[in-house]
Design brief:
Strand content: over 45%
Order of helices and strands: EEEEEEEEEEEEEHEEEEEE
Distance between the termini: 52 Å
Helix content: under 10%
Oligomer: single chain
Number of helices: 1
Largest sheet: 6 strands, antiparallel
Shape: extended
Length: 287
């Protein structure tokens, strides 16, 4: 299974050509098949200097090796809070995955599972682990949720998950373990194409950006005064670590800057006297 891949499209001089993914038929969604993925892209213009090159530097995939299994005896009277130090090693595609422990916990009240069996795997790969009970036994310990897991929030080599049960499981249980291991396959892969000659009128190439990164870097070190007669205010947003960006209104020279609040999609009115922005309870207007 592979993740989405965004190729690089360049012209004869090596300049990147802007493009976006698009469905050929909006009524027929893309389908994903084993070992292949259809794709379609479009650009914002047609006048290019060929040959054009479509290239992919690498592909990220998720490998799903065959399941492995093991048995554990939970005993005749396990208790919530009990921990089993399993400490077993498994080899998965040449990588070591270590089952450290299993712990019996209380689950929040739901329509089914009231207890859970938490598991903790440690490995030398950023793998997601899913463990399921392949032989839940009598109905008294019926499995309510098959289990799930993923990378730990801090330690990417730690995978945890939980299997939900209606009642406390006991006795010998047989567990199956699935691993999902990420890989990066390095390329590059590329294909070149020269647009065919045509007698039809060629479209005018789109004008380049008037403010490029190089120009911005040159201007950012300068502190020239504003041209005479140039006034007004500027609307900016800044990431200050909150859920939404901070919205500021200030003078063009940066001497005065007032924080309006935190919001999304701020927009000034055409006469510059009002500001509309979106917050939790709807759109607000700032005078």
């Amino acid at each position: 299974m592979s993740n989405a891949v965004i190729p690089l499209f360049t012209d004869a001089s090596g300049q990147a050509i802007p493009m976006e993914q698009v469905q050929v038929d909006p009524h027929q969604p893309f389908s994903f098949y084993e070992n292949n993925m259809p794709w379609s892209y479009r650009t914002n213009r047609k006048a290019f200097t060929g040959p054009l090159t479509l290239s992919i530097s690498s592909i990220n995939i998720i490998s799903t090796p065959p399941e492995f299994d093991f048995e554990i005896d939970l005993g005749s009277n396990p208790q919530v809070g009990q921990v089993w130090q399993v400490n077993r090693d498994f080899a998965v595609e040449g990588r070591a995955i270590h089952l450290q422990s299993i712990r019996l916990t209380n689950n929040p009240p739901t329509t089914c599972d009231t207890v859970g069996l938490e598991y903790e795997f440690k490995g030398d790969a950023d793998a997601s682990i899913m463990m399921t009970d392949a032989s839940p036994g009598p109905s008294i310990d019926q499995v309510c949720s098959g289990g799930g897991g993923g990378d730990g929030p801090v330690d990417s080599t730690l995978a945890t998950g939980i299997i939900g049960y209606r009642n406390i499981p006991f006795g010998v249980h047989h567990y199956s373990v699935s691993a999902f291991i990420p890989y990066e396959i390095n390329g590059p892969w590329q294909v070149t194409w020269t647009p065919p000659l045509t007698s039809a009128p060629m479209p005018t190439p789109a004008a380049g950006a008037c403010l490029t990164l190089d120009k911005w870097n040159q201007l950012s070190a300068r502190n020239d005064p504003l041209p005479s007669g140039l006034g007004g205010k500027i609307l900016t947003t800044a990431d200050e670590g909150e859920l939404w960006p901070a919205v500021y209104i200030g003078t063009l020279d940066g001497a005065v800057s007032t924080k309006v609040g935190t919001a999304t999609w701020p927009s000034l009115s055409t006469d510059g006297t009002r500001l509309a922005y979106s917050v939790e309870d709807g759109i607000h207007i700032h005078n």
